[in-house]
């Protein structure tokens, strides 16, 4: 039978192309456009070349924001990943309480970012907030609006509260997929609890943990709303992370050119780190199998 | 080395079992003699894995006791019982090397490293993985992984018993035979009590000295392979063991004669008329084909050539009857009767074998 050649089927892809163009390509290209041009107003643009990129790359303000950002993501991962695994291991495996735990764990994930920010902003206040009040009562000089360390603590604690559940739920799903025979065999081999974790649970969770780490890295690297609501990036620039700086630059000062160059590099850094991370992890996986 | 006694054992997965049907394992008294190789044979879901997990201590029975020699271990855990168990699906520690996998149970018990190295080498050569000791266990084939599991089960010399829960399910047929032979050799060498759960009769009959057949949560027969073949105590044993299984025909039995739908079948023994649902059972191996007036009239359906012999599929009164014919034999034209070797016919009442009062001697048989 002769095969009918009909390439009209390609038209079926058109709606997706249009959607992606409007949702991703066109906005991104607008940013690219701004990043290489300058204007003195009146909608008259002229070519700037890589000037804005150079300016952003050499800006000490951006450097320190980048440093803070890395530190923040590092702290977040160092706390949330082990804590999430620990919670997942402690959660009941089945029955009524398993469902209760799952619902409780999912709750923080359902709360909008700015609401989370507001909750912790108020909780931490010395005058009306529970945490601030208790710390004050304990004679601890607590003021996250003035003390950079306190600002960091409240931002980190807030993020841990908000997102550890995600890690815990992913790890829990990984744990649930381990067949019972593994635990029975470990029992017969007289493996200690630590060895069960090290040689059975951790290897079996590796896949979901990779996803958890990636998600938490990307999200924490892009964090904006919560620190903006709680500390506004302060005191000074203590909690000004990259996106807070970026918004200040783009909307506060209306420096569209540098902000656009900044955005593009920000995007590329996240893409690069995620890609490196993913490649390294999957290659480790393969190397072990050899 | 221990004798394992099951005393009045029963197990239900329900918290409050009401009727007998609620029990996965019905009441059971049994002694596993020290140093013997047992096979636990039965269809899927008959309670064999439950029994195995109770012996190893992974499950606590709802009723009864387990004794190791004279010590009650019912509530002791696996570690205290010092039992090795190999599971149906391979359990290996992926991130460890093959050698570390084998050494794991010994290291956890704090044994001397020199001894561990020697023992691991020994086990590795037994399962044929000498040259893979340094390789990571991840990425090995399923049967290689299962060999590691078997090796880990056998690495400890001082265990009270080694339990196998259908360990060869995932293994290639040619490897199955090899591993079974190795297990057998190992048993001869070390004399561990071994309990081997399987639903494969060939596996059970080749591995074990004694086969325990389970059906519906009950042990229906314990015996040597010959006993299971010659005198199945329960119709389940009859049709589960053998290929094809035993022929079972509804009959009325009196004296040394069975009457099946108006036809007489001579028996090898005298019986007082048993009550209940009476059947006679005969293995296809002892059925011969005949013509004329002797034997049961049957409709021959087809003949299957399975290589070593042929299987004749026939029907008597709408029920299948099989016979095994020698290779190359052609069924003579007009053959429409099957004759049973009288001394091979067993009588069953309500599925359980009836013991004859005495066997029919040679002279009386001629008279019949």
Range of helix content of chain A: over 70%
Number of helices of chain B: 10
Strand content of chain B: 25-35%
Helical/strand content category of chain B: alpha+beta
Quaternary structure type: heterodimer
How much beta of chain A, percentage-wise? under 5%
* Chain pair sharing the greatest interface: A-B, 20 and 26 residues
Q: What is the makeup of the main sheet of chain A?
A: 2 strands, antiparallel
Rounded mean pLDDT of chain B is 83
- The average pLDDT value of chain A, as a whole number, equals 86
Give the termini distance of chain B in whole angstroms. Answer: 53 Å
Q: Please write the CATH class name of chain A.
A: Mainly Alpha
Going by CATH, what is the homologous superfamily of chain A?
Answer: MetI-like
User: How many β-strands of chain A, per DSSP?
Assistant: 2
> What class do helices, strands and sheet pairing of chain A give?
mainly alpha
Q: Total strand count of chain B, please?
A: 22
Class of the largest domain in chain B in CATH?
Answer: Alpha Beta
Please give the order of strands in the largest beta sheet of chain A: 1-2
Low-confidence stretches of chain A: none
What count of structural domains of chain A? 1
Q: What is the gyration radius of chain A calculated from CA atoms?
A: 24 Å
What would your notes on this structure say?
The complex is a heterodimer of chains A (290) and B (368). Chain A has one domain: Orthogonal Bundle (MetI-like fold), CATH 1.10.3720.10. Helix content of chain A is 73%, strand content 2%. A two-stranded antiparallel ribbon of chain A has the order 1-2. In chain A, a hairpin with a 5-residue loop joins strand 1 and strand 2. Chain A is globular, with a radius of gyration of 24 Å. Chain A starts with 13 loop residues before the first helix and ends with a helix. Chain B is built from ten helices and 22 strands. In chain B, helix 3 crosses helix 4. Chains A and B meet through helix 8 and helix 9 of A and strand 6 and helix 3 of B.
């Amino acid at each position: 039978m002769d095969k009918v050649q009909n390439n009209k089927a390609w038209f079926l892809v058109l709606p997706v192309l249009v959607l992606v163009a409007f949702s991703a390509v066109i906005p991104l290209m607008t940013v690219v456009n701004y990043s290489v041009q300058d204007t003195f107003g009146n909608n008259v643009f002229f070519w700037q070349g890589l000037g804005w990129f150079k300016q952003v790359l050499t800006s000490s303000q951006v450097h320190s924001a980048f440093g803070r950002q890395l530190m923040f993501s590092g702290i977040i991962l160092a706390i949330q990943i082990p804590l999430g695994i620990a919670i997942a291991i402690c959660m009941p495996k089945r029955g009524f309480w398993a469902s209760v735990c799952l619902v409780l764990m999912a709750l923080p994930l359902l709360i909008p970012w700015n609401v989370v920010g507001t909750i912790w902003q108020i909780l931490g206040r010395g005058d009306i907030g529970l945490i601030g009040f208790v710390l004050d009562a304990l004679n601890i000089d607590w003021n996250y609006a003035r003390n950079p360390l306190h600002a960091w603590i409240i931002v980190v604690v807030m993020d841990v509260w908000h997102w550890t559940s995600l890690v815990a739920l992913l790890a829990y799903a990984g744990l649930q997929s381990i067949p019972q025979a593994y635990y029975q065999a470990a029992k017969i081999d007289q493996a200690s609890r630590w060895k069960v974790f090290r040689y059975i649970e951790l290897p079996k969770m590796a896949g979901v943990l990779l996803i958890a780490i990636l998600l938490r890295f990307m999200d924490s690297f892009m964090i904006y709303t919560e620190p903006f609501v709680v500390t506004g990036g302060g005191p000074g620039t203590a909690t000004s992370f990259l996106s807070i700086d970026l918004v200040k630059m783009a909307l506060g000062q209306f420096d569209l050119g540098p902000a656009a160059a900044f955005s593009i590099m920000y995007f590329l850094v996240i893409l690069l780190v995620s890609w490196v991370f993913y490649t390294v992890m999957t290659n480790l996986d393969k190397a072990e199998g050899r | 080395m221990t004798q394992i006694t099951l005393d009045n054992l029963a197990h239900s997965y329900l918290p409050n079992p009401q009727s007998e049907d609620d029990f996965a394992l019905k009441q059971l008294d049994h002694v596993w003699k020290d140093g013997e190789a047992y096979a636990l044979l039965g269809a899927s879901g008959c309670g064999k894995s439950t029994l195995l997990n109770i012996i190893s201590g992974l499950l606590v029975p709802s009723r009864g006791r387990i004794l190791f020699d004279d010590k009650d271990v019912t509530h002791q855990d696996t570690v205290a019982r010092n039992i090795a168990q190999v599971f149906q699906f391979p359990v290996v520690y992926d991130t460890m090397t093959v050698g570390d996998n084998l050494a794991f149970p010994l290291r956890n018990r704090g044994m001397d490293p020199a001894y561990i190295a020697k023992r691991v080498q020994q086990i590795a050569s037994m399962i044929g993985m000498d040259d893979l000791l340094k390789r990571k266990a991840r990425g090995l084939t399923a049967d290689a992984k299962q060999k590691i599991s078997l090796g880990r089960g056998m690495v400890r010399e001082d265990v009270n018993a080694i339990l196998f829960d259908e360990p060869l399910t995932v293994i290639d047929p040619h490897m199955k035979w090899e591993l079974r032979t190795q297990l057998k050799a190992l048993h001869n060498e070390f004399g561990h009590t071994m309990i081997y759960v399987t639903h494969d009769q060939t596996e059970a009959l080749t591995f074990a000295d004694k086969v325990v057949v389970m059906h519906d949560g009950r042990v229906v027969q314990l015996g040597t392979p010959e006993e299971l073949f010659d005198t199945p105590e329960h119709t389940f044993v009859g049709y589960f063991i053998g290929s094809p299984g035993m022929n079972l025909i509804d009959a009325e039995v009196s004296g040394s004669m069975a009457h099946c739908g108006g036809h007489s079948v001579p028996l090898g023994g005298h019986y007082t008329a048993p009550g209940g649902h009476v059947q006679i059972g005969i293995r296809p191996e002892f059925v011969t084909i005949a013509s004329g007036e002797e034997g049961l009239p049957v409709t021959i359906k087809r003949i299957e050539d399975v290589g070593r012999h042929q299987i004749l599929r026939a029907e008597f009164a709408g029920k299948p009857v099989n016979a095994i014919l020698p290779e190359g034999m052609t069924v003579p034209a007009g053959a429409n009767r099957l004759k049973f070797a009288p001394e091979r016919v067993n009588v069953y009442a309500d599925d359980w074998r009836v013991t004859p009062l005495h066997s029919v001697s040679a002279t009386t048989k001629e008279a019949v």
